[in-house]
Amino acid sequence: SFSLVPSIMHRLESLLLSVNLKHMILDHCPQNITIPTIKVLESITTKGCQENFDLESLETLGDSFLKYAASQQLFKTYQNDREGLLSVNKDKIISNLSLGKLGCDRKISGFIREESFDPKKWTITGDYSGNYFLNEELLFNKRSIYVGGTRKIDTEVVGDVVEALIGAFLSTGGELDAIYFMNWVGIEVDLDHIRYERHLQVQPEKLIDVGHLESLLDYKFCDPSLLVEALSHGSYIPGGYQ
């Protein structure tokens, strides 16, 4: 039935939109990184589209990995800074406002889908009748795309899509692929091993019952002082000069 044509064309247009975004991200990829087009489509589809899928699951995954990667990068880069300052710097990296600005700078905002499909409002591709015009726009990778107008998108929505794309790369290609996308979008992180060295001699057995806690956790700590650190709240005032 011809009544299905608008829905079929809408899905094809959505997939082509995802392909363009995928190529824009991967064109200068230094490694053999790839991602399924359907995952990109899921990442740019908001709940407002009322589809059977949306970005929320990938956004949650991407948000968690972003916090982990950003925290590790800060601990490695600023090893002598106190935790409070590191937390402030982390919040600047992972905030939706920062992610939204990065996404807009990379023109990800133009690929976001946030409206439900209405067959009655569907415009035939290539139809230049009426007031419908296409404008050419140059992307970062020197590719050209054609846009049919402008719209307003909340910066937080763009930030959510950036997180969803991180989750998409992570779920399909692992940590290195997610790191590649994060660096491409402007979040400079890596996952090099952090050497954790303790400069003070600590006797954890004088502070807590290490053996009892290890038996409860069914885990043997190579460095029991880490257990003391994990159980010490910031409000605790030790007997030393601090």
From TrEMBL:
GO molecular function: ribonuclease III activity; RNA binding
Keyword Mitochondrion found: no
Listed SMART domains: RIBOc
InterPro entries on file: RNase_III_dom, RNase_III_sf
Keyword line: Hydrolase
Listed Gene3D superfamilies: Ribonuclease III domain (1.10.1520.10)
CDD domains assigned to the protein according to its UniProt record, in alphabetical order: RIBOc
Segments forming domain RNase III: 50-174
Domain of life: Eukaryota
GO biological process: siRNA processing
Pfam families membership: Ribonuclease_3
GO cellular component terms attached to this protein's record: cytoplasm; nucleus
PANTHER family (alphabetical): DICER-RELATED, ENDORIBONUCLEASE DICER HOMOLOG 2
The protein's name in its UniProt record: DCL2
Species name: Pyrus pyrifolia
Gene: DCL2
